[in-house]
Amino acid sequence: MEYSPTILTGGDGRSDDQIMAAHDRRHVRRVSDPGLPVSDGKGEPLVIMELLQRLRVKDVMRDHDIISVVRTDTMHFAQNLMKRYHISGVPVVEGNRLFGIVSINDIILALEGGWIGDPCQKHMATNLVVLEEDMPLAFALKYFENYIFGRFPVLNKERDLVGIVSQRDVTRILMRELTSELARLEGDSSHHGAQQGGGSPAPKSEAALPYYSMRQFVVVRNDLTNAGKAANEIKRMLGDAGVEKKIIRRIAVAAYELEINVCIHSLGGSITFILDPHKATVIAKDKGPGIKDVEWALRDGTSTANDWIRSMGFGAGMGLSNSKRVADVFDIKSTVPSGTTVLCEFNLPARG
Amino acid sequence: MNINDIVKTLDGKLVAGGESDRKVGTVVANDLMSDVLLNDGDDILLLTSLASDQAMRTANIVGAMCVVVHNAKPLPQTMCQVADALGIPLVSSPLSKYESCVRIHDFLSREA
Fold first, then answer.
1. End-to-end CA distance of chain A
2. DSSP category for residue A203
3. Once rounded to an integer, what is the mean pLDDT over residues A277-285?
4. Beta carbons of B50 and A312 less than 8 Å apart
5. Looking at beta carbons, which residues of chain A come within 8 Å of B50?
6. Which of A108, A296, A347, B3 is buried most deeply by CB count within 10 Å?
7. pLDDT tens across A201-257, in order?
């Protein structure tokens, strides 16, 4: 399983036209899996998970007074900027186009190597990992966890540089929002109860942000009262995002089957839903006991369900095969006794 | 066949989910929810004996226009709440599922 951080490449001796052309093609390269941008569902209270979904990168980034250099500025000039403004890196931009970043490490190398007088375009880093302004904050946190960088450039849909986000920016806004959220919850104790169980209420701004969404739902073992809430919430999110009805139904069916499976066949786990402009992904992950024979489990009508589960309308042995039937990409990995992970991906046509 | 027709034909009572002007597109009679999910039809009328929240959530996943629970089974309050929240009409009928199927078949045959 992987997701794709956007990496822009440019520079490296190419002409300006070549670099611009590369940007204009909006070249996106896939890198090795830095891990799913989700929590394991073990530690974070739902209120924090919701906050990480509701807040977008643009809510935390600095979008004014971005300290930057142009490609012809010298490394020495960049060094002085870093010194003056107490920052560890400066983006190299022309207009709104991002061409690279000069980091404190590049400056140290330039001082050691004697090329501090060279133009930035010769030594700037051009293999850049960037964030998009509409991504949930959870993505940004995962990027900070998976990459050594202390800050990321932020691009808009037109691929223009619109801000910079650092770990300090994230911490500052998160603290402010958490304080505000806690104050609200203390004033409305009934809200705590509403967040228990298989699903969680929708973030207020979800409907207005159709391009990137990610939610994780905790699924409790044998809690059939709440099972299905996650799938129904995913269906609602897809409707809000303007996805075609027939595709919504396929995704909802897979989410529902997987959610019920985690509920009735495992020790508990989670359903993670990721929506981006090109695909929707549903991931069911449980804490065990794992499936001994996955091939057998994938056959229609095979089930280990007991009578109680059957009396509740489940356990017909169709869950995995139904999910596989509706998904464009289906993957299952299971280890006894540590657990099972099922991935279903659905291709999405371009949305308006 | 609309909600009023369903209630009248099945000697039923609309207990939750509110009124709707949707018409029956496909009839599914089943108590196994995975089987219901297999159905690709639109505007499903779900005939079931399963009196649980899950029947309503399954109905929502497949975009059902109505759920009928048979044999006058007592409906859990939570099931009615889920029906209201999802806006799916929930009908209670004293008939058996088989009898409902026969009556709906007759009605739809006349309608056609």
1. 27
2. P
3. 91
4. yes
5. 312-313
6. B3
7. 344 443 443 467 888 899 988 888 888 999 999 999 999 888 999 999 999 999 999
Which helix (H) or strand (E) segment is A123 a member of?
A: helix A120-123
* B35 contacts in chain A (CB < 8 Å): 316, 318
Contacts of A232 in chain B (CB under 8 A): 57, 60-61, 86
pLDDT at A44: 55
Contact status, residue B54 vs residue A312, Cβ threshold 8 Å: yes
Average pLDDT for A65-85? 91
User: Cβ separation of A318 and B61 shorter than 8 Å?
Assistant: no
Chain B residues 82-111 with CB within 8 Å of chain A: 86
Instruction: For chain A, positions 240-269, list CB contacts with chain B under 8 A.
Output: 245, 249, 252-253, 256-257, 260
φ, ψ of residue A346 in degrees (nearest 5): -135, 125
Reference A273, options A61, A55, A41, A32; nearest CA is: A41
Partners of B2 in the beta sheet? none
Do A317 and A305 meet the contact criterion of CB atoms below 8 Å apart? yes
Long-range contacts (CB closer than 8 Å, 24 or more residues apart) made by A41-48? A41/A216, A41/A218, A41/A269, A41/A270, A41/A285, A46/A195, A46/A200, A46/A218, A47/A181, A47/A185, A47/A195, A48/A178
Query: B34 at the A interface (CB within 8 A)?
Result: yes
pLDDT band at residue A30, thresholds of 50, 70 and 90? very low
Q: Which of A234, A256, A299 to mutate to test the interface with B (most CBs of B within 10 A)?
A: A256
A252 to A281, B30, B37: CA distances (angstroms): 11, 19, 10
* Element housing A183 (H / E): helix A167-186
Going along chain B from its start, the domains and CATH numbers come out as 3-111 (3.40.1390.20)
CA–CA separation, A33 and A218 (whole Å): 24
Question: A273, A237 in Cβ contact below 8 A?
Answer: yes
Q: Which of A238, A318, A324 best probes binding to B when mutated, by most B CB atoms within 10 angstroms?
A: A318
pTM: 0.59
Give alpha helix (H) positions in chain B: 3-9, 33-38, 53-61, 77-86, 97-111
| Domains defined for chain A, CATH in brackets | 6-174 (3.10.580.10), 196-347 (3.30.565.10)
The residue ranges of DSSP E strands in B8-50, in sequence order, are 13-16, 26-29, 44-48
Tokens representing residue B85 in the block? 């929240």
3-state DSSP percent of chain A in helix, strand and coil, to 5: 40, 20, 40
Residue among A161, A156, A16 nearest A101 (CA): A161
